[in-house]
Amino acid sequence: MEGAYARGVENHSLPRTAAFFDLDKTVIAKSSTLTFSKSFYQGGLINRRAALRTAYAQFVFLVGGMDHDQMERTREYLSALCRGWNVQQVKEIVAETLHDLIDPIIYDEAASLIEQHHTAGRDVVIVSTSGAEVVEPIGKLLGADRVVATRMVVGDDGCFTGEVEYYAYGPTKAEAVKELAESEGYDLDRCYAYSDSVTDLPMLRTVGNPHAVNPDRALRREALARGWPVLDFNRPVRLKQRLPALSAPPRPVLVAAAAIGAAAATAGLVWYTNRRRNSLA
Question: What's the pLDDT tens digit per position in 125-140?
Fold first, then answer.
């Protein structure tokens, strides 16, 4: 897809509909980027002052979300902050801490919705303003089919230059959804979208089934005026706690066990038949 950042997570089926999910405070309870600030500090990417500043930004985000101006200031700050970061190191830190930091803050309600949309044959697409290095692994963790995220410019040295190549924010999200609909054959009138922020109003208006999730004041007002469903997600839970099947033996093991059981039963039946024959002889 040209002009937007969307990478598939290996799904060869092409349903005619999709569900588009914002990430922060919609699927997970915090800001995905700011959640990793402590890990980046421990990895030597940021200093103590920067770690404290990102912690404060996380607090502001959790209390009331961020309006357009706050988002712009945060984008400028984070873009400058990551200048010179080695991309591979960032990916390694995210991979090492993903389950500890993200798994516990996934909303149970969001995970259930993702399952329901997959069961209904819809693709699930995460559309987030956060960077791709953070959003892509989270998308895989959630079982998303595609990810749209902000992409930073990477220099020849493998480090961020501090410039933004693609910014998945506001109207740009709506454009990405339209481009995906055209390339994948989605019927937008039958598609779904979920977000907590009024800045995602263009994306929500793009689909036929928009939903406000934990909405900020402005989005709640818009949703009520437009008759959109308003959902309250408040149960963060680890995926393994809500999916006991994950701890079950893999399917090949179960098949092998069934085969062994069937063989044992057959052998028992042959033994019993032969013994009965001998007793009657």
Answer: 999 988 899 999 999 9
Q: Which of 24, 123, 200, 216 does the annotation list as catalytic?
A: 24
Q: Return the number of other C-beta atoms located less than 10 Å from residue 202's C-beta.
A: 14
The residues facing 18 across adjacent strands are: 123
Annotation says 22 is catalytic: yes
pTM, 2 dp: 0.74
| Cβ contact 145:173 at 8 Å | no
Q: Looking at 22, 123, 145, 216, which residue is catalytic?
A: 22
Those residues with Cβ within 8 angstroms of residue 28's Cβ, 6 or more apart along the chain or in another chain? 35, 102, 105, 106, 107, 110, 138, 236
Annotated active-site residue 196? The verdict is no
